Structures are given as C-alpha cells and as structure tokens.
C-alpha cells in the first residue's frame, strides 16, 4: 500500500500479527485463524488438545463463539475459564 503526502510517497506494509505476539501484547486472539502450534502455546493446551480444537473447528465450519471451546473433548469449565481471557 502506498500513501502520498505532497510529492513524498511512503510504502506501508500491513500484516496480521502472529498469535504468539498477540498473546504477549494482550491483543485478543482470532480463534478461527489460529493453528495447532498457536493453541499449543496457551496454558493447559498441549499438542493433542490443540489438534482436537482445530479438528472440531474444521468439522463444524469454525467456532461461532469462544464458548464453543466447551464442546471440545478435554476442555471443561476450569480450563475454559483460563482460556477465555485470550479471546
């Protein structure tokens, strides 16, 4: 994207912020764009649960709300209460 101000032009690159950086900055994560490796970085989520979340999302056409995490095997109320603050 190029912007002009008078005779000067400036190129500005706009890219999505990776999930790991969003976590550090306290920016809410996009639950439907995260990959297995992103979920794996969340507290209480290992590779197997991360894969179940992504598979659930694929089979159901996405997660409509963060509450849908409760439908994934291995996520109960306690784990959900920790995770929901990231979304």
Structure description:
This protein is an alpha+beta fold and 87 residues long. It has one domain: DNA polymerase, domain 1, CATH 1.10.150.280. The protein is 36% helix and 9% strand. The protein contains four helices and two strands. It is elongated, with a radius of gyration of 17 Å.
Oligomer: single chain
CATH-level-4 superfamily name: AF1531-like domain
Strand content: 5-15%
The largest sheet is: 2 strands, antiparallel
Counting helices, strands and paired strands, the structural category is: alpha+beta
Q: Summarize the helix and strand pattern as letters.
A: EEHHHH
Shape summary = elongated
Number of helices: 4
* CATH topology call: DNA polymerase, domain 1
Order of strands side by side in the largest beta sheet? 1-2
> Using only CA atoms, what is the Rg?
17 Å
Portion in helices = 25-40%
Low-pLDDT stretches: none
Strand segment count: 2
Q: What is the residue-mean pLDDT, rounded to a whole number?
A: 91
**CATH second-level architecture:** Orthogonal Bundle
Q: What is the rounded distance between the termini?
A: 29 Å
Under the CATH scheme, which class?
Mainly Alpha
């Amino acid at each position: 994207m190029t912007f002009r101000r008078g005779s000067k032009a400036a190129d500005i690159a706009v890219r999505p912020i990776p999930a790991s950086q969003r976590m550090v900055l306290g920016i809410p994560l996009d639950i439907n764009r995260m990959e297995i490796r992103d979920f794996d970085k969340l507290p209480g989520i290992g590779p197997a649960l991360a894969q179940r979340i992504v598979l659930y999302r694929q089979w159901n056409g996405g997660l409509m709300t963060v509450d849908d995490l409760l439908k994934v095997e291995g996520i109960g109320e306690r784990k959900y209460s920790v995770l929901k603050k990231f979304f």
